[in-house]
Amino acid sequence: MKQNIAIIGGGASGLFSALQAAITKEILHKDVSITIFESQETAARKLLITGSSQCNITNSASQENMVTHYHGKEKEVDSILTHYSVKETIQYFKHIGVPLRTREDGKIFPSSFSSKDVLHALLKECKKYNIHISYNSRIEKITHNNSSFTAFTNNSKITSFDTVIIATGGFTFPRTGSIGDGYRLAKEMGHTIITPKVALTGVKVHDNALHTLSGLTLENLAVEITNNNWKNGSLLVTHEGLSGPVIINNSRYLNTGDTIKVCYLVDKKGVRRMAKELQKEISSLSQSMGKVCSKQFSQHTLFLLL
User: Fold this and answer.
1) Is CB count within 10 Å lower at the N or C end of the chain?
2) Structural domain contains residue 197
3) CA 173, CA 171: separation in Å to the nearest integer?
């Protein structure tokens, strides 16, 4: 008896889920029909822009190291990587004709550094396994009755499915189709939704006095993200506020109304320097140079450093 699988969302996770289901059906010699429902006119719009359109696929870091970057979700990520490892991911993409290259920072990209090549390979595999992709098909509702699911679009019933995979993405980039449908569909079917938080983003600053410095990158400084929780890295001033790695990588900890403190006085080891420390050093320098460095000059120098 044929089994019908519906995958909601034709992004990277939807395409990959469909292909893994297709591979499994061949291994188990099962008769399975797989349909991907994509709300947009084309598939994987977000994949095309990821990594500045270069598409960083995975990372060469060890599994033990990798899970430490998923704050609060180490166990969940460790379980995922145990079931499908980075090594398996690399082997799969090479198998479908996507040669890979590892950068010095450990990030792994297609050798062409083109996300289009990754998408082309995935779509080619979908065609090979007779996976149907229904474009402009936004699933608005899913009902569950006994052992089957029924999907609806534009208030019209599509058909019944034995299995449904929700791969809609989050609420991260609405113009690519990620508008949060997955949360709603899952909640309607009785799942508990953990309230999403903004992450991997810059911040808008109220009364941004630094907007005239927009585009300026400040290297090796420290930012207080939460109370006495300082993070080091480079900071980018934008016309709306602050960005750059030190902000983007820690934005998950920020909430609307928070105060961000920035310390520009950081040594080569990343240790913050106190103003009093520098004042003493400047005063000592002034004394060693005699009258060349006046007290007034020292004060102005400290002001500029701060």
Assistant:
1) N
2) no
3) 6
